[in-house]
Structure prediction request, 136 residues.
Amino acid sequence: MKITSRFTVAVHTLLAVYTFQGEHKLTSEFIASSIGVNPVVVRRTLQSLKAAGLVDVRAGTGGAVPVRPMSDITLFDIYSAVDCVDGNLFNFHDNPNPDCPVGRNIHRVLDPHLEKAQSAMENELKSVTLAELRIE
Prediction:
């Protein structure tokens, strides 16, 4: 299962907002030109980031503005804001056969390792702030 591109689009969006603030009006069209996506994708992304308290978006062509310092935003904050994974990172098949010794025990033997892997990834995202990714 892949993490959707919403995550990297959101990181790119926020880095553009911080990098170009004060130099350009940060419209969805401007940000989309940096990312190489349709402005509608950026508008949806900005809505999610706004709901998470990571940016403010001014109506019309007011553009996006940051609301928190880059050092206060982790990659996990962004990951959580854009719902790039539906539930757990690893999607399990629905109906293992309870009459089979493998099917009956697969969750017991595999789930702890999958949970540990997801936790490790999330902890890595929590350890990196946007300030560490700053584009000069």
